[in-house]
């Protein structure tokens, strides 16, 4: 049960940090009073008290880029909210993903790996394994994914965890290459899974 101490905030307003539940990216900072908190909890759409409009304001009420509530927690002093949400689109009124003009991509190392793959794909290093796969075409890339998938299945039936995990890493790596060969990124697949989960 949340027990925020609204008396600590100026005019009964407490800061609310909004974080994307899927990516972990901080999207924005807003302020909530008791009424905004209650509306957020009842509607499932993150609602603030707008200091400039002097009224309740549901994020997305005009843009339809709602913040869909996942969970609310309080800090140790009971005066700051951490709200995990799933955004329907860009969070910032400028059209940026976040109010700090950051991309809302949060697959950590996998994002970096995708960038490396893209760099090698478009590079001119003839010794690059990744480039050689792209140069051989989609059939070769797809074949490698199939081969790695079979190796994962084989290792799954044995009890060598190290081999199983290494083959799993090979499969994921080649799958990322296949996605790029088809013009997609991991986020495109994640989006479909998120849709199914809802």
TrEMBL record:
Its EC number is 3.5.4.19, 3.6.1.31. Residues 1-109 are annotated as: Phosphoribosyl-AMP cyclohydrolase. It comes from the Bacteria. It holds the Pfam family PRA-PH. It catalyses: 1-(5-phospho-beta-D-ribosyl)-5'-AMP + H2O = 1-(5-phospho-beta-D-ribosyl)-5-[(5-phospho-beta-D-ribosylamino)methylideneamino]imidazole-4-carboxamide; 1-(5-phospho-beta-D-ribosyl)-ATP + H2O = 1-(5-phospho-beta-D-ribosyl)-5'-AMP + diphosphate + H(+). GO terms for biological process: L-histidine biosynthetic process. The keyword Hydrolase applies. It is found in: Cytoplasm. Its main location: cytoplasm. The keyword ATP-binding applies. GO terms for molecular function: ATP binding; phosphoribosyl-AMP cyclohydrolase activity; phosphoribosyl-ATP diphosphatase activity. InterPro entries: His_synth_HisIE, HisE, PRib-ATP_PPHydrolase-like, PRib_AMP_CycHydrolase_dom, PRib_AMP_CycHydrolase_sf. One of its GO terms (cellular component) is cytoplasm. In the C-terminal section; belongs to the PRA-PH family. In the N-terminal section; belongs to the PRA-CH family. This is Histidine biosynthesis bifunctional protein HisIE. It comes from Marivirga arenosa. The lineage of its organism: Bacteria, Pseudomonadati, Bacteroidota, Cytophagia, Cytophagales. The gene is hisIE.
């Amino acid at each position: 049960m949340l027990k925020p101490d609204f008396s600590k905030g100026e005019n009964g307003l407490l800061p609310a940090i909004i974080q994307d539940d899927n990516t972990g990216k901080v999207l924005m900072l807003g302020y909530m009073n008791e009424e905004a908190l209650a509306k957020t909890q009842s509607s499932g759409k993150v609602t603030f008290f707008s200091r400039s409009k002097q009224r309740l304001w549901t994020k997305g009420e005009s843009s339809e880029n709602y913040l869909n509530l996942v969970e609310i927690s309080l800090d140790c002093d009971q005066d700051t909210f951490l709200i995990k949400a799933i955004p329907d689109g860009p969070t910032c009124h400028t059209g940026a993903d976040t109010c700090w003009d950051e991309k809302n991509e949060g697959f950590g190392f996998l994002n970096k790996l995708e960038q490396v793959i893209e760099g090698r794909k478009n590079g001119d290093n003839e010794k690059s394994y990744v480039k050689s796969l792209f140069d051989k075409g989609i059939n070769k890339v797809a074949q490698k994914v199939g081969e790695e998938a079979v190796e994962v299945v084989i290792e799954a039936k044995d009890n060598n965890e190290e081999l199983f995990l290494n083959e799993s890493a090979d499969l994921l790596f080649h799958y990322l290459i296949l996605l790029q060969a088809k013009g997609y990124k991991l986020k495109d697949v994640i989006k479909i899974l998120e849709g199914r989960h809802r």
